[in-house]
Amino acid sequence: MQKRGETALMEPHSIPPIAVDDERLQALDDYAILDTPAEPGFDGIVQLACQLCDVPVALVSLIAEDRQWFKARVGFPRCETDLNSSVCAHALAQPDELLIIPDLTVDTRTQANPLVTGEPHIRFYAGAPLRTSAGMVLGSLCVIDKVPRPGGLTQAQQSGLKLLAEQVLSQLELRRAVAQRDTLRATEAQTYRAREALRETQMAIVAAEGELQPILRAIVVGAMRAIPAADGGVFELLDGDALTYHAVQGTVEGYQGLRVPLAGSTAGHCATTRQPYLMIDASRDPHVKHELVACLQLGSAVLAPVLQGNHVLGVVKLQSRQPFAFDQIDLEQLTLFAGAATAGLTEAEARADARAKDVYWRGLFDRLSEGFQIGEVVRDPGGRITDWRYVEVNPAWGELLGIDPSTVVGRTVREVIPGVEDEWIVEFGKVVNSGQPIAFTRQVGALRRWYEGRAFKLDGDRFGVIFLEVTARVEADARRVALLTLGDRLRDLTTTGEMTQAAAEIVGLALGATRAGFGRIAGDVEAIEVEPDWTAPGIPSIAGLHQFDNYGDIRAHLQRGEALVIEDVTTDPRTRDNPGPMQSIDVGSLVNMPVRERGRTVAVFIVHDVQARIWTAEELAFLRNVADRVEVGVARVRAEELQGVLNKELAHRLKNTLSIVQSIATQTLRGVSERELVGAFERRVLALSRAHDVLMQKSWTAAKLKAVMESVLSLQADLDRFAFDGPDLDISPQAALSLSLLLHELATNALKYGSLSTATGLVRVAWRTEHGNAPSLVLDWTESGGPAALAPAGRGGFGSKLIKMGLVGTRAANLHYDLTGLRAEFRAPLTDIQIHLH
């Protein structure tokens, strides 16, 4: 097999070199799509491709290193073939256009292909490349016929196939985005859990007041809480040439005081190298003291040295009964606890002197990487809390708020941060009044920063707060939620105007902007027609036509297809000479994200802020993603409109065909003397036409079971002569046609011989689903109020044979000719009745 990156001399039918290009194959690997189960989104696309191009075969083909694999397929039995059988591989060589081969037997690239020379003897091929935004072609959306097509595809079919290929890429991007989101959420949850455990551990160390054993226990308990894979933990303190077990937890709880030599042990290796160590599998690890593996139930472990300068104090170890229980992230998190242990052990060693000089508290306070503050509430004469005053803050507080900590002690929060939200006073007041700690995640709007932390009561009217800034995480979450919301909204909307308005609102709220909108470009980026936009309260709309040159030198970036980013209209060289026009429409900073089509900018996604603002790379990537999704959504609407036109044309032609069939039959059978038989034939054709009308209501994708029944039976008698009982179901076109003919024959017999032949007779039509090894649909026809039912003499006519064939030709028909009338039960597998959506 050819290795990645190798290019060999090829025969005319060989695959092109790009098929084994490392960069392309890596791009395909990044989507993690190969060998995944079928998905409705992809299956629907190949079904549409078949209908659009009028072919029996359509495939979503992905070209891997040694095979072509089909994510979705219609009319092709295998889910993959080797590369020598791949026609789609040739589509990789022309990423910007369709590959159309009218006759595969005469094209030098395919005439020796096994699928052409042998089964299934394919003859025509057309493939739209699946090209990523980075220019990598992963495969193609292709359609195949078993006869040559000299004319290839019509222009409309080519355009539609390209749009459907773009939908395949959209599905791939959506799958990857969801997977990345889930991975990120899991990582964030793990990080949050570890951070909370570390924060609680640091508080427990403070509360231990320098006592050694409580500090060691807090370290081990906190580390195990942060790393759930651990079922045992221990703090091994260095004692001469050995390590002694302290603060044992879980599976090693019975080994308090155990001494392990430095030489020949894993903890000893960690201590002597002064490096964290990840033990993957204790049974194979070279540093394990193997006589301890069984008794300590040791399968895998993570270890981190506790250092004080160059001096080793001990080792924190977490272990699991299972091998491969830990990873590098667990090791990094344990290292954080080892760092906290360093501070705790250092303070424990010097606690007597630290308490005398207040070094202990001040040192720990100042060394915290989290922000820490002590506040005191301010009350009005009635005792109501109206503000709070800073008593003390640590250096990290200033770094996290961007405020000099030396300027805040003695001042109130309303003085330090004008316009601060009332919730910051109300919730900390509740902590003081109730004595109950709280956790919070909240924004300081004036600083445009988010914080997460805990507040707890101290003595009297004082409280403490320990916190971290989480702006990046919160804003990233908001952008991810916005993208998911946008995807949901775009799927449900049916006009481009609705899509752009929905996208503008979602973007504006997610970014905290003051205006967002979408505009169509006129000429060579000369003007923009802004559609109805979203604005924050108090900000006017700018919907309408605007000339770019009226606002500064801002056209060049958009002409090149680059984002126009201005962080301050008064200082940016493109607008600073005359910022007035921008300021007159409440623009202090802006981003214009271009939407491109065939190499030119055709539209722009607009975001404004009334204030100067630094637009981050993550925000710009978010806007690029939104613009791309809106572009894909608009393409979907256009594709659906085209499909609707095609469906109507097909329906019109089919109905004309049925009319012609009926006309031909009328003319042909004019001389037939048995008019009853002629009438029966015409009524059957009419029943098919009625079924066709019901199917048309759902574009020939399905029909409602009850609607088919009512449409056909209303030809025979008033519907109040029928009682319907059963759940409405979507049924396939084939099942609708079969049901129409069956009900027509039953109703015809009832009119002639059964309950409908009398004025008071009724028919009950009931249906149900039964679940077992093979779920089935059961249809009951019960006549009452008419003459006794008699079995047909002899073999019966065509109508009797049709009734005995049952639903969709299953022949599962049970007929009872009773004194009260005909009773019939018909059964068919539910999979043959219902529309298949996957």
TrEMBL record:
Signal transduction histidine kinase HWE region domain span: 649-728
Keyword terms of this UniProt record: ATP-binding, Kinase, Nucleotide-binding, Phosphoprotein, Transferase
GO molecular function: ATP binding; protein histidine kinase activity
Database matches in SMART domains: GAF (SM00065), HWE_HK (SM00911)
Domain of life (superkingdom): Bacteria
Pfam families, per database record: GAF, GAF_2, HWE_HK, PAS_4
Reactions that this protein is recorded to catalyse: ATP + protein L-histidine = ADP + protein N-phospho-L-histidine
Keyword Oxidoreductase among UniProt keywords: no
InterPro entries tied to this protein: GAF, GAF-like_dom_sf, HATPase_C_sf, PAS, PAS-like_dom_sf, PAS_4, Sig_transdc_His_kinase_HWE
Keyword Kinase assigned: yes
Residue span(s) of domain GAF: 37-182, 211-355, 495-644
EC number: 2.7.13.3
PANTHER family (UniProt xref): GAF DOMAIN-CONTAINING PROTEIN (PTHR43102:SF2), SLR1143 PROTEIN (PTHR43102)
Protein name (record): Blue-light-activated histidine kinase
Species of provenance: Methylobacterium pseudosasicola
